[in-house]
Write a structure and sequence with these properties.
Belongs to the aldo/keto reductase family. Helix content is 43%, strand content 11%. The protein binds NADP nicotinamide-adenine-dinucleotide phosphate.
Length: 385
C-alpha cells in the first residue's frame, strides 16, 4: 500500500524526530558538561575538521611531535610581566588553549603545551569549557620532568557560568586541580558575567539573581585563594558595571580577560584604562582579531587585520609580520596577550614580541584604527545583565 504525505509525516518523520531528540537528550544529559561537548564539537566542524569529541583523539594533524631529546630553551630575553595584587607576576606573552581545531585534540594539546614551555613560554590560558585540562596537565607535567620549574609556569583557567555558585565553585576548582595535576592554580577567572539562554547554574536554581551568583562565585574564589589552592582570582568579559560590583568584596580582582585588538570600539579602551588604573591587569584575548568562528562571519577578523594598510606598512618598517605588530601593540598598551597556536613556528614568532619596540608615533597611529572597527566581530558585554 502506498503511503500518502500525511502518513509519512505521522508514521515516519515524527517518530524519527522523537527518537533523534531522545537520543540527543540522553547523550547530552549523560555528559557532565554538555555545553563543553557542543563547543568542542562545533569549533573543529566550523574549521572543516572532524571533531575529536566524535571521531576520537590523536587522529587530527597539526602540531608536530616534540623530539624526545628537546630540553627547555632559555626564557625570552627582555621578557615583560604585569604586577598582580599580592605580589605575583603575569608574563605578558601567553598561549591560548581554545577555539582552534588543534585545541580540541588531546594529543595535539599535549604537544602544544610541551612545545610552548620548552621554547621558553610560561603563561598558559585554559578554561573548563575548553574541555582539555587533562591534556594541558600532561604537557605541563612532561615539561616539568624535562626541567621547567613549576613556579615559573603561570596557569589560568576559568569557571563557566553554568557552574557559578559557592559550593559549586569550590567543588569545580578541586576538579580542575585534579584534572590539571597541579597543587595550585595561578589564576581562576569567572569566564563570562552571566549564563547563556536555556542554561542554568546551581546558584540560579536556588533562585539567586545573576549578580548574587557572581558574588557567591567570587566569595568561593576568595576562600580558595586564602586556602592557597589558587593564587589569584579574576574575571573575564566583564564590563565596568560588573567589575564595580565585585570591587572591595573578598579577593582583589587580579585580572580582566577581554577581547582586545586595535579594531575594538572606544569603550573597550575605557575598560582597559579603568582596570589598569585600579590595579587590575588586563589580558587581551583574540589579540589578532577573532579567528575561530568562520561559519557566521565569513571572512575572519585576522584576515581583515592582515589586509590593513597601516599594519602592513608597519610590518615592512619593523621587519615583523602583522601578527607580531598587533601583539606588540597590545603588550605596549600594558596588556598580556594569549594568541592560541598549535604551530611551534608561530609560538616562536609570538614569543619574539619582546624583541622590538614600536615608536610612539606608530603606537598613536594604531590607536586611531579603532575608528575603523566596522566589520570586526564585537560582543558588547555592557549589555549583559
Ligand atoms: N575569555 C574568553 O571569553 C575568551 C574568548 C576567546 C578566546 N579566549 C582565549 O584567548 C585565546 C586566543 O583567542 P583567539 O580568538 O585568538 O583564538 P585562537 O583560537 O587561539 O586562534 C588563534 C589563531 O591565530 C593563529 N595564529 C596564532 N599565532 C599566529 C602567528 N604568529 N601567525 C599567524 N597565525 C597565528 C592560529 O593558527 P595556528 O594554530 O595555525 O598558528 C589560530 O588559528 C584562546 O585560545 C583562549 O585561550 C578567551
Amino acid at each position: 500500500m502506498k503511503m500518502g504525505i500525511k502518513d509519512i509525516i505521522v508514521w515516519r518523520i515524527i517518530p524519527g524526530l522523537a527518537v533523534a531528540i531522545a537520543a540527543a537528550a540522553g547523550f547530552f544529559l549523560s555528559h557532565e558538561f554538555p555545553f563543553a561537548f557542543i563547543f568542542a564539537t562545533v569549533v573543529p566542524l566550523s574549521n572543516g575538521v572532524l571533531p575529536p569529541s566524535v571521531v576520537g583523539h590523536g587522529k587530527m594533524r597539526g602540531t608536530p611531535e616534540v623530539p624526545s631529546d628537546l630540553m627547555p630553551l632559555p626564557r625570552p630575553k627582555d621578557e615583560l610581566f604585569l604586577d598582580l595584587p599580592g605580589g605575583g607576576k603575569l608574563p605578558q606573552q601567553g598561549i591560548g588553549m581554545c577555539c582552534r581545531a588543534t585545541a580540541t585534540d588531546d594529543v595535539l594539546v599535549y604537544r602544544t603545551v610541551l612545545w610552548y614551555l620548552l621554547l621558553g613560554g610560561r603563561h598558559i590560558d585554559g578554561a573548563h569549557v575548553y574541555w582539555n585540562h587533562a591534556a594541558i596537565g600532561r604537557g605541563i607535567s612532561e615539561a616539568i620532568r624535562r626541567g621547567v620549574p613549576r613556579e615559573e609556569i603561570f596557569v589560568t583557567t576559568k569557571i563557566f557560568p553554568t557552574h557559578f555558585g559557592f559550593e559549586s565553585t569550590k567543588e569545580n576548582v578541586q576538579n580542575y586541580l585534579r584534572e590539571l595535576g597541579l597543587g595550585y592554580i595561578d589564576m581562576v577567572l569567572l569566564h563570562w558575567p552571566q549564563n547563556f539562554p536555556l542554561l542554568s547554574s546551581p546558584c540560579q536554581k536556588e533562585g539567586k539573581s545573576r549578580s548574587e551568583c557572581r558574588r557567591e562565585t567570587w566569595r568561593a574564589l576568595s576562600n580558595l585563594r586564602e586556602e592557597g589552592l589558587i593564587k589569584n582570582a579574576g574575571v573575564s568579559n566583564f564590563s565596568l558595571k560588573h567589575i564595580k560590583e565585585l570591587e572591595g568584596f573578598g579577593a582583589p580582582i587580579a585580572n580582566n580577560q577581554i577581547s582586545f585588538h586595535p579594531f575594538e570600539p572606544d569603550h573597550v579602551m575605557e575598560t582597559v584604562k579603568y582596570c589598569q588604573s585600579n590595579g587590575i591587569t588586563v589580558t587581551a584575548y583574540s589579540p589578532l582579531g577573532l579567528t575561530s568562528i568562520t561559519i557566521c562571519s565569513g571572512m575572519r577578523d585576522k584576515d581583515r587585520a592582515h589586509a590593513n594598510n597601516l599594519l602592513r606598512e608597519l610590518s615592512s618598517k619593523y621587519g615583523k609580520n602583522v601578527s607580531q605588530i598587533m601583539l606588540r601593540w597590545a603588550v605596549q598598551t600594558g596588556c598580556a596577550v594569549i594568541p592560541g597556536t598549535g604551530n611551534p613556528d608561530h609560538m616562536k614568532e609570538n614569543l619574539s614580541v619582546y624583541e622590538f619596540y614600536l615608536r610612539d608615533e606608530d603606537m598613536d597611529a594604531i590607536n586611531q584604527l579603532k575608528h575603523v572597527a566596522e566589520g570586526f566581530t564585537h560582543v558588547d558585554v555592557r549589555q549583559l545583565e
